[in-house]
Amino acid sequence: MTSEPIANYGMLSDCRSAALVSASGSVDWLCFPRFDSPSVFGRILGEDAGFWSIRPADPHSSTRRYLGPTMVLETVHTAAAGTVTVTDALVLGDGNRGHELGAGAPGTLLRQVACVDGEVEMEVTFAPRPEYGLVRPLLEDTAGGILVHGAADVLAFSSPVAFELDGGEARAKLVLRTGDVLGFALHHQNAGPVSPAFWSQEDIARRIEDTLEGWGSWSQMHQSYDGPWQDMVASSGRILQALTFYPTGAIVAAPTTSLPEVAGGTRNWDYRYTWIRDASMTLQALWVAACPDEAGKFFQFLATAAASRLSSGDELQIMYGIGGERDLSERELAHLPGWRSSAPVRVGNGAWDQHQLDVYGELLDAAATLPEYLNDLEPGTRRFLADAADAAASRWQSTDQGIWEVRGAPRHYLHSKLMCWVAVDRAISLAGVLNAEERVPHWMQTREQLADSIRMNGWNETAGAYTQVYGSEDLDASSLMLSIVGFVPADDPRMLATIDAIEDRLTDSRGLVYRYQADDGLSGEEGTFLLCTFWLAHALALGGQTRRARAVFERAAGFATDLGLLAEEVAPDSSELLGNFPQAFSHIGLVNAAWAIRTAEDEDRLPAAGGGETP
User: Fold this and answer.
1) d(CA 256, CA 579)
2) Which end of the chain is more exposed for a tag (fewer CB within 10 A), N or C?
3) CATH assignment of 223-605?
4) Which helix (H) or strand (E) holds 308?
């Protein structure tokens, strides 16, 4: 059983794929050449699914950090006889800078070991297991390192020292003394007639430095946020960039699959795809923590991927592969036990063909976030956005699975109606640039119908709050979006009552927010959601309750790891992080809540701000 805490992992990225490295120095997750490719190392999901470990042989302590504003990880191991550093990087393309991060990434993981002082014996174990651990490959000792055969692609492991080969595993023990530096490289190459090249020590050292400069250039160019929690916002911006697939601009929800919502449970999903649901909040976060260029590229990807569905008369798909793929059919990997026996391990996502009405509002809200970019859109894309508003106007009275992709009977979810309202509301404001002025009267009529429906059916007198489903008393954190998207003023009495109800009755003992607690047809429980806790902070800030907002924000942000990474959930009975990791949506929530609090506090300082915050 794999038991390493999720919080113990750091992420590496080349803006095409990602690796997870444990604090003890083991790469336990790596997919080549894309985020959604089968894993080469998958020990995080099963002991026999492959890993690459570099660690001192003797007892030691470890610390780690990202080197400056980069995604290059340095781990310092201190033993009784000396100290070594291990520097890990998924290497960027040679000379890639700024917006070009990921353009020429060669598909190579570099690991450099340096003895800082004393003498340290190191143990290196290289155990690749391609195809999610299904393949136990043949390792061939050759000049420059080891060739890995047996899978669809070829791997070349570059090493300056000899390894002992034992079946599909290679081991070495090294003694390093002060000043010694050794570099290792794992290079992926598509199968073909050309043999993969091995990396020299000089190339490894140079490309690590180049990758540091590449990430540093991106951070210097993009990260200008000046406000509370500046370091956290900057870190979250880099993480969102690290989760971006450069060729298309798609952003994965997380770089992993099947890390569970509860240890030992079955709520284990593949998050290596892009959700339209995340669009508008992602763009807003990119605007704050990155720059409009990344936001524009992500929006263009979503619009292009989604346009063909609507033009053919189909409903909008809720998620896509990072290359724009539509069929994300789900299957189970029965040979993997899962993290802490959390089975099944799934590849693909069965929610891909669900019916969700909120996607129309997400797209139009995303478009409204980037008005200056819309003038450069092709006429067909503008027409598609107008058609998306029409689709929301014609389908809003339907039932669906809702924002949380409930795998049960469709229902009238409040959030889905709200986002249909957003779709027509934003379309009205964008009508000129969409060349759709003639549709405005119909959109305005629909907007009023939707508003009446939400006010009449979304509010529940018994619950004293807006609730999850029409006619239900069950609370849902997505009701916080009512003020965040501008449907009601943030100080509306019903909105304030909903905020209070969620904070009082939809939180754990620490004040972290659950998505919902209603029966969703799935077995098992789940933890509290960091995104939803940031939503609560965001909604409080919009209502001028900045002291409460700060307290809620810091409550959630306190669950960031030592590397600044956020998971999806926190276990209800401990402080353990749960879910796929790191989670884009949690970082998006952090950025947007920080911005909302900063804005509210700036307004409080204005002379005309009035009577201060609501207690």
Assistant:
1) 9
2) C
3) 1.50.10.10
4) helix 292-311
Q: Tell me how far the alpha carbon of residue 242 is from its chain's centroid.
A: 9
Distance from chain centroid for Cα 514: 19
How many Å apart are CA 377 and CA 563, to the nearest integer? 38
**Total residues belonging to the chain:** 615
Helix (H) or strand (E) holding 578: strand 577-578
Which tokens in the block code for residue 245?
């697939």
pTM (2 d.p.): 0.95
Say how many CA atoms lie within 13 Å of 306 toward its Cβ.
31
> Domain residues of the chain, as ranges?
6-219, 223-605
Reported as a pLDDT band with limits 50, 70 and 90, residue 613 is very low
Q: Which two tokens mark 237?
A: 């911006």
**258 neighbors 346 (Cβ within 8 angstroms):** yes
> What tokens appear for 60 in the block?
């030691």
Task: Report the helix count and the strand count for the chain, using DSSP H and E.
Answer: 14, 26
Residue 336 in this model has a pLDDT that exceeds 80: yes
SS3 sequence, 440-491? HHHHHHHHHHHHHHHHHHHEECCCCEECCECCCCCCEHHHHHHHHCCCCCCC
Confidence of residue 525 (pLDDT cuts 50, 70, 90): confident
- Decide: 186 and 159 in contact? Cβ < 8 Å: no
